[in-house]
Amino acid sequence: MSAGTLEPGMIDISASKRPTMARMVAVEIRKMTDTRAGLWLLLAIAIITVAVNTLFLIFSNDDLPFLAFLQFSAMPQGILLPVLAVLLVTQEWGQRTGLVSFALVPDRSRVIVAKLAAATLFVIAAYLVALVIAAVLTPIAGADDPWEDVSGPYLLRVLLALLIGGLWGFAFGLALLNSAFAIVAYFAVPMVVSIVTAIWTAAQDKLLWFDLSTSSSQLFDPSSVSGEQWAQVGTGVLIWIVLPMVIGWMRVQKAEIK
User: Transmembrane stretches, by residue range (predicted)?
Assistant: First the structure.
């Protein structure tokens, strides 16, 4: 058979173009909406965010400002967005679609980057939904000064806190490559570390450098964050996000695709 001749049933892919990163990210986003688990999780994030804010508006005895509604939204989103990130990065291995994904894009690092970008976009989209809900409900709540303490830096800190949670779930999913294990680890590890930090009061200041869950929660404080608190968040990110992500990246490069 000559180089320019194809046997019956063969497909010529010589003219195929390398998919752009934008297209790969769009594919990863579509994967989440095409599966029942992903679609229902996306709907749950939106519905629960609306429901939580509405319930607080109805049953709260106080007049609620804008920041209160934003923090109410952060509670369900802080729980569900990391789960979404886990499912996004583990679906190739749990649903056995890796052969298709990595055959079409042999460079596995590009697939990981596309998934990371998609997870980031989902977090940003959820945050924008929270901002819209807070903006709509704030005038209804009737607070005397509803926009008190609202500032650009604070809004960015809240977004950063949600991104940290989402990337934390993504890192655990990438390191474990199993949805169930990664979700359990994401909720169990921070809980254990936080309990140890709360009980071991003598070393509490030192443990905050390892307790990302507690240190990142300081980003929701409307007052300014000190340099030491930023350093604690950065150290926690290196330990619980960057390190597992590097381990996961190395594992994906060497893993056998089945």
Answer: 39-60, 66-89, 116-142, 154-177, 184-203, 230-250
